[in-house]
Hints:
This protein has a 3-stranded antiparallel β-sheet with strand order 1-3-2. It has helices at 13-20, 24-33, 51-66, 71-81, 83-87, 108-114, 119-143, and strands at residues 11-12, 40-41, 47-49. 10% of the residues are buried. It folds into 2 domains: 1-92, Multidrug-efflux Transporter Regulator, Chain: A, Domain 2 (Orthogonal Bundle), CATH 1.10.1660; 98-144. A hairpin with a 5-residue loop joins β2 and β3. The chain is built from 7 helices and 3 strands. The model is unreliable at 94-114 (pLDDT under 50). The protein is mainly alpha-helical.
Amino acid sequence: MVVNKSKAAFRTIAEVAEELGVATHVLRFWETKFPQIKPMKAGGGRRYYRPDDVEIVKLIKEFLYDKRYTIEGVQKLFKDKGIKAILGGEIQKDFFEIPDSEDKTCTEVKEVEVYRLTDKQRALLTDIKTELREISKELSSLGK
């Protein structure tokens, strides 16, 4: 299944695996060998790859599969040259990095403010969470 997402969108491990033509367990293995791959992990361990993570795993696949490097060879290359130099571009700053408050040119501060919850929204979400827990308990008792 091909999903049309913007280049800036986060992708699931399944989406990245499909795009690269590798199995998901291969990506999980690469995460253990290359600390440069840092997908976000949501509840239940579900991985969300940032655009930079996708670029890094594409690069790893190219070196391992096309250029026939060993894992140790790619690790040494990353260590010696640096991932930024190899990618030939700037790796994005961490999506959640909050810039210095002194930096007035930075737009990330405005974006962070957009996602702050009001007390009313927080209370509403708390109520919804409570209701869902009660429904879950009722459903569990029906199944026994």
